[in-house]
Amino acid sequence: MPKKIDHEERKEHILKSALEVFAEEGYSNSNLSLIAERAGISRPTVYQYFHDKVEIYYYAVKLITGRMFVHYSSIAWDESIGDEADRLHAIFDDIIGTAKANEASLLNLVSVIISAKKEGVDFAEVIHKRTAKLSILFKRLIRQGIVRGTIAPVDIDAASDRLLTIAQMICFQVAFFPSFDAKQAQEIASLGIDTLRP
Fold this sequence. Notes:
Layout: H1 7-25, H2 32-39, H3 43-49, H4 53-76, H5 84-101, H6 103-118, H7 124-148, H8 156-176, H9 182-194
């Protein structure tokens, strides 16, 4: 009886292998043959899942941001955590913990962005589109907090942009600075969130 293949698991395995190859070889020097070799599967098998390396990268961003949004949505609307500012704190604590726990993968992802940018491929738009949901989540929490009086009246778009920038900065620091201090990152996030309290 043939072994049943978990296709999502295989796609994620190809993805992990691809990010490693991208980081080591540079985006333009990478190809599906190298990715297949790293993944321990045939090149035609890789083609069953992805047409090219651009599709692999898009899948990475979609997978990571999709999971992130579902998880952070559950935190955002969990009133047992506290008020809206408390829930923003909980989201940032999770961002910091998740980034630190996935430091190697985050480094590979950021390295791919930098390598591709040097080679004229800009993934900024796809990343912006995929992180827009987090920005919308921040806006909804801030708006709800203003209505409930737990957050001071502020420019919602500007406040959300600041929080998103802090989240991006934290992920960048985790990826590139071995001396990353989670406690300091939490303090920076707290400063950004606590300025929203009335």
